[in-house]
Amino acid sequence: MKNYIHHFVTDRGWNISQLKSLKENSISILPHNHLGELDYNYQDKVAIVTGPSSGIGRAIAIELANKKTKVVLASRNVNKLHELKDEIIENGGLAVSFPTDVTSEKQCKSLIESTVKTFGKVDILVNNAGISMRANFKDVELSVLKKVMKTNFWGTVYCTKYALPHILKQKGSIVGISSICGVTPLPGRTGYSASKHAMDGFLETLRIENSENDLHVLLVHPGFTTSNIRNVALNGCGVPQLETPFKEEKLMPAEKVAKEVVIGIAHKKKDITLTSDGKLITWIYKRGSPSSSILRAPYPARTNPC
Q: Is residue 251, in this structure, part of any structural domain at all?
């Protein structure tokens, strides 16, 4: 373990001397081994997935469909929405699509109503729709922060508000695809981090409020995984950056994240933190050591100016 941590840290340009105060035997940064399958009846479930046009959302929708779950796809991108629906059906799954902008309370309400009208119930809601941003706070327009918050936080609130009564009837699951930014700070992501912290606080409180109602709430905190979210991340002026600061091919595939999420639903897990980087960053930050410079060094804002 000691050699693994040393290699892991130095390979990322971290200062190993900063980590001497950490207790190596209590750090969990080895590759994640997911739990095995349970006798969970996926075929009997109806699942709504928001933001399934690409990345993690798309992978979750496909993983659920492969297990014969009835999948409801909700996204603003109508073309990709219909393409995914057709792909799922061609591969023997069952899916319907409802074009939805989660920043609209009216459209979120309509999404839930249409799902219930089609299938008679809702068992699973995966709040995945989200946007990101990369810009230091001094350079960002407030409208950008509002846009990120409206999508990532309010989109979750709107969908959850109208789905909750139906999910409670089924003793079902509400999933929030958050981020390590929901539990740790990363430079250049004030708006994104705030939105994910808000999502976490909202869903954790919802879990406590319904602790006697058998409501399952799962928060997922992925580290850096393959996704288009960095390419379309907004700069300080709200313009997509159209590039990623990482080598995407070296990141955890979205399909692996999806498998962990779907199994986590069956196991009624409360929290899943993914990727070795994500676990290490979270572990360091929660223990308040070392200095915040260790968080800044490997992950600078790398933002395109307006």
A: yes
Reply yes or no on whether 162 is catalytic.
no
Q: How many domains does the chain have?
A: 1
Query: pTM of the entire structure?
Result: 0.80
Position 9 in a domain? no
Residue 243: pLDDT over 90: no
Query: Is 127 domain-assigned?
Result: yes
Answer whether residue 141 is part of any domain: yes
Q: Name the band, by pLDDT with cuts 50, 70 and 90, for residue 20.
A: very low
Q: What is the pLDDT of residue 241?
A: 56
- Parent domain of 113: 40-296
CATH, residue 182: 3.40.50.720
SS3 content of the chain, % helix, strand, coil (to 5): 45, 15, 40
Question: Concatenated DSSP letters for 128-194?
Answer: -----B-B-GGG--HHHHHHHHIIIIIHHHHHHHHHHHHHHHHT-EEEEE--GGGTS--TTBHHHHH
In this predicted model, which residue has the larger pLDDT, 251 or 78? 78
Catalytic residue among 40, 192, 285, 299: 192
Among residues of the chain, what percentage have pLDDT more than 90?
Answer: 56
